[in-house]
Amino acid sequence: MPAREWKQRAYRAFDRFVPTIPFRYLPPKQSVRLAFNVVLDREPDPEGGPDYTRKLAAGELTRRGVAEALAHSEEFRRRVPIRDVLLSMHVSRSEFVAGLPRAARILDLGGTHQGLPDGALVHLGYPYPFERLVVVDLPVEDRHQIYQGGSTGAPVLSELGPVQFAFHSMVDLSPYEDGSFDLVYSGQSIEHVTEADGDAVAREAFRVLAPGGWFCLDTPNGPVWRLRSEALMNEDHEIEYSAGELVAKLERAGFEVTECKGLNLMRRGVAAGVFDEAEASAHPGVFAEAQDCLLLAVVARKPTGSAPSASSSV
Hints:
By secondary structure, the protein is an alpha/beta fold. The protein contains twelve helices and nine strands.
């Protein structure tokens, strides 16, 4: 029998029998084999397969836990590189958000989610419960078409705490009192306002933060994106900063920059002066050399000895 015909028969047999037994009901050995086949595209190895099977049978791991362990393995990352740059950047931003400081009161600038009612920060992987999260974004009708959608603004109780929505410009934080937040997060948003308005955002973030509070941002790394073309990454962007420009902006507002890192490494491309999207896609994560990455990820702190600042006029 030709190999092609044999494979077609095998696929038809698989389609007939496998869907009748959901993954969660398969016996441990078969569950482990299926997880290895789907995630790593291979059969279980002589050591790993029996070990996962034993842990699954003993209740030490769930079936989902087996799949997650394989998906986070070095082998998966090495053998199955991400090829979609947007997906890869999302993975990197999630890693950055998971490392943000613990905060009870959070202000998220531009953090509505296109499909989920409690905003983006929770679903990017922020790990700590909070007392209050306020998401500021433009009214739907004032956003660029690609950003329309998202929450209706009704308060939502997320898995981490209550989420409120306020629809107005991120440049105007006058509704919020001095020192009323412990963390201000700006995820892919400061590039959407002009350089002057970005200065106003930084000043206002400084004002609404309590002494010792954190201002954390991720934003495109302008010089790396301009290796692709002189045009901005997104037609709705006003400016895309270099690491030095962004750090200087935050320091002028009074912040101490504690970390300036990058997301999605493109070291070889930057060294050669070319935009290598495939390289950046295959290297998600948080990296020390910000200048060699697609995105900047900055953590800044309001000094603990800061006196209350006057509300800025914006």
